[in-house]
Amino acid sequence: TPLYSSAASDVYKRQNLGRVFEPFFTTKPVGEGLGLGLAISYGIVRDLGGNLEAANSATGAVFTLRLPKHE
Predict the structure, then answer these.
(1) Distance between CA 42 and CA 52 in Å, rounded?
(2) Long-range contacts of range 5-12, CB-CB < 8 Å, 24 or more positions apart?
(3) Phi then psi for 6, rounded to 5 degrees?
């Protein structure tokens, strides 16, 4: 079962959605964000064999985290 997280205040423009996991990409004003949080998160999840996706919904951005089941 995937884990969902939504941020009602952050809706990414369609042209930016594909870039949200790039290092140093941010939609925040200069000096208010480094743009590393999602890039680091994506790398950790990928290294664990999982997947992290971003999408928009009517209420904001939605991040879906899927990790393999540990046996």
Answers:
(1) 6
(2) 5/62, 5/63, 5/65, 6/57, 6/59, 6/60, 6/61, 6/62, 6/63, 7/60, 7/61, 7/63, 8/59, 8/60, 9/60, 10/60, 10/61, 11/56, 11/60, 11/61, 12/54, 12/56, 12/61
(3) -125, 150
> What is the number of helices (H) and of strands (E) in the chain?
2, 3
Amino acid at site 10? D
The tens digit of pLDDT for each residue in 9-23 reads 455 677 778 888 999
Give the mean pLDDT of 33-56.
92
Count the residues in the chain.
71
- The tokens describing 11, both together, are 């809706």
